[in-house]
Specification:
It is built from eight helices and 15 strands. 23% of the residues are buried. The chain starts with a strand and ends with a helix. It is α+β, with helices and mostly antiparallel strands. The radius of gyration is 32 Å and the shape is elongated. Strands 3-4-5-7-6 form a five-stranded mixed beta sheet. Strands 10-8-12-11 form a four-stranded mixed beta sheet, sandwiched between helices. A two-stranded antiparallel ribbon has the order 1-2. One of its GO terms (molecular function) is NADH pyrophosphatase activity. This is Nudix hydrolase domain-containing protein. Belongs to the Nudix hydrolase family. InterPro entries: NUDIX_hydrolase-like_dom_sf, Nudix_hydrolase6-like, NUDIX_hydrolase_CS, NUDIX_hydrolase_dom, Pre-Nudix.
């Protein structure tokens, strides 16, 4: 948690009015129930003669180490209180990120901490607030929603909540909009292409021979995903060569858009070893027979892909070659480009 200083104007407005003894006793009793130490002098009651300045000797604080809302402490001579806040890190866009750990926390305590934190973030003119809640702290979702947070995205072990603080248009980025998939075009020296039949999905029991396909995992490069998927489905070892083409479609997976990359790979082994979880059969098929399948000819997108693969086979087509590089922040990355007239770029890269 973080600690911030707030002036006495944030104290209850009880200070500004005289309270009758019965009401004072009620406030003291309620304060004790909540774990808040209230100075009798705040309420117009007789003060302890040993107290030189009881008002300045009171402090409100909140600690996640206990379920109490407040404990007594020493207030600085400046007359300001110390209040505990949720731990938060500034992001690069004027907002804050709260990464809650899996230590159990009472929802009432969380609400108190969140309200105090929101007050300070607003004073500091923060913009977006992100709260990452592990699945062990799912009890805190409802309190956060009551304070204006909404869902952003969820994974198997956490949920991410967000809230926009300013009275302006919310510019927080939406959740990831696309899923990425690959299809692998692999041909041996007999002009045979590696094809499979699937156990599940739209091609189940359809008799259609198709290219090996699959989804790119989080943190995985397209070229690596293509090699992995072929290995998992057929047992064939391959080397990535090029991206031949890609297509974009929408509302294909839980309303998300889909990017599908047709990749050319070079086989390193040729003996098929089928896995039986997703693939019903696999074989090497003459590329012309693959392209002539009725389903392929009747579906223009598949027909286009087949024609591109044939063009590559006949050396009339150049795809996009991966070039290992880094992003501006130093992360490993690949740049895919048509190298037809870029031999100098590849040569300089090898020299480095």
């Amino acid at each position: 948690m973080q600690r911030f200083r707030a002036t006495s104007k944030f104290l209850p407005h009880l200070l500004a009015r005289k309270i009758s003894p019965p009401s004072s006793r009620l406030v003291l009793t309620e304060g004790a129930r909540l774990g808040i130490t209230v100075s009798p002098s705040w309420l117009g009651l007789p003060k302890d003669p040993k107290d030189k300045n009881p008002f300045l000797n009171q402090v409100m604080s909140v600690s996640t180490s206990s379920l109490s809302v407040a404990t007594q402490g020493i207030m600085p001579e400046s007359g300001v209180e110390q209040i505990e806040l949720l731990n938060a890190d500034d992001d690069l866009h004027g907002g804050v990120v709260v990464d809650m750990k899996d230590k159990p926390m009472d929802s009432e305590l969380f609400t108190s901490l969140l309200k105090a934190s929101l007050s300070q973030w607003k004073q500091k003119e923060k913009k977006g607030v992100w709260i990452k809640l592990p699945i062990e702290l799912s009890n805190l979702v409802h309190p956060a929603v009551k304070e204006g947070f909404c869902y952003h995205h969820a994974e198997s072990d956490y949920i991410m909540l967000k809230r926009w603080l300013p009275e302006t248009v919310d510019t927080l980025p939406a959740n990831a909009s696309h899923r990425v998939g690959i299809g692998a075009f692999i041909m041996n020296n007999k002009r045979e292409v590696l094809v499979v039949q699937e156990i599940h999905g739209r091609f189940k029991d359809a008799g259609v021979w198709k290219l090996p396909t699959g989804a790119v995992n989080e943190g995985e490069d397209i070229c690596a995903a293509a090699v992995r998927e072929v290995k998992e489905e057929t047992g064939i070892e391959t080397e990535f060569v090029e991206i031949l083409a890609f297509r974009q479609s929408h509302k294909s997976f839980f309303q998300k858009s889909d990017l599908f990359f047709v990749c050319m790979l070079k086989p390193q082994t040729f003996d098929i070893q089928e896995q039986n979880q997703e693939i019903a059969a696999a074989q090497w098929m003459p590329v012309e027979d693959y392209a002539a399948q009725p389903f392929v000819k009747q579906n223009k997108l598949f027909d286009y892909v087949a024609e591109i693969c044939l063009a590559k086979t006949d050396k009339h087509y150049t795809g996009f070659t991966p070039l290992a590089t880094t992003t501006s922040s130093g992360k490993p990355s690949y740049l895919y480009f048509n190298h037809w007239d870029m031999s100098d770029l590849l040569a300089s890269d090898k020299q480095q």
